[in-house]
Amino acid sequence: MRRSRKVKILATLGPASSSREMIRKLFEAGADVFRINMSHASHDVMQELVRRIRAVEKSVGRPIGILGDLQGPKLRVGTFANGKETLKPGQKFSLDDNPEPGNSKRVNLPHPEILKSVNVGHRLLINDGQLQLRVLKTDGHSIDCTVVSGTKISDKKGVSLPDTDLPVGALTEKDRRDLEAILEAKVDWIALSFIQRPEDLAEVRKIARGRAGLLSKIEKPQAVARLAEIIELSDALMVARGDLGVEMPIEAVPGIQKQIIRAARRAGKPVVVATQMLESMITSPVPTRAEVSDVATAVFEGADAVMLSAESAAGEYPVEAVSMMNAIAEKVEKDPTYAPIINAQRQEPEATGADAISLAARQIGETLKLSAIVTYTASGTTGLRAARERPQLPVITLSPVLETARRLSLVWGLHCVVTEDAKDLDDMADRACRIAYREEFAKPGDRVIITAGVPLRTPGATNMLRIAYIGSDGLGAL
User: Fold this and answer.
1) What is the count of structural domains for the chain?
2) 275 is annotated as an active-site residue
């Protein structure tokens, strides 16, 4: 099964989409990668979902990626004697280390790291920013604030600190347990939430030891400020617009989205755009026009993937949501303005032989109007380089490593096929032509361009180009 688009679709699984039958329907509707949100999934649920996805993968004969999304640190206020309180803008309100139930004057904040880190003038956003407080005074045990906007606060509401750099890592004890469980289940990607600094990635990378790709969710202003360093240590990125829009001015999010996408594309790292893309389809069979435009914008910008959250996890129309996202992407990529926009944003190649080969493959393929670019890759780096060029031609990525093919299913434009490694250069050409023919990218008489590393089976050593004809038998012909 080949897609008629190059951007990938990432669908979150949940109560509305956890059965094997529904997972298959979502795949057939267009989902390429499935997300398991560890904020809601137990280890048993996660393991069962992985088994069901792998069963669907086996039945459809296509590699399917799985992303395990770690919850990250959840900062919340304590409880109130009455369960909730109504405040007034301009009034004083305190957060402290007193565990007693709160009232209209104060509430417990069971996070000493916040009490010790905030400074006068910093903002505290409660319940996704619906209540905004500003710090007037702090002594390490209590934070005295004024209410800037909003009126309601209740038990266990979340706290965001857009101005404060907290001295805590992105991994909680729950995250460490979840991380070990999802690695044991052989999940392909790990999403790390609420990172603030590049150091937050070090512990996860040490634990993962290359067993899964590391995707950094950019959702805090501190991460935006150190974006270049975080990209360097990440395998992929996500524009997590929900929390980003709480912690930063919401009108700044579209510009930050463009900044992150372009930075990731320069680095050749996959980038996902997420949150509220088709939000109305949680309860409606059709999206709003603004939502359609939002998805289209991400596709025009050259994002590797677009993601559905509650739409596919808990909505009433999960299959319709994936189908709609698929239809939008297909339409955008056929639009006459799409190719010029993608070409205008294309980045200069890195000064390496492998990047120069990938650039040459795209230029030759487009100049000669070849049927496809075929890349051989064991580690995935050759496929990433081919995708970084954003070629107009289809890119078929052949790998003897199933885990590599699964991981690359997140990457723009790559049609991944698991195949035995080539025995020699002639076998490499024959295998490439045969698979291009079988997967319906080329017909007898067409030509494909092949990139690989010689000697074969040398990771990261892309140094060869070869043009091959598809013979009448579907094999390569000189």
Assistant:
1) 3
2) yes
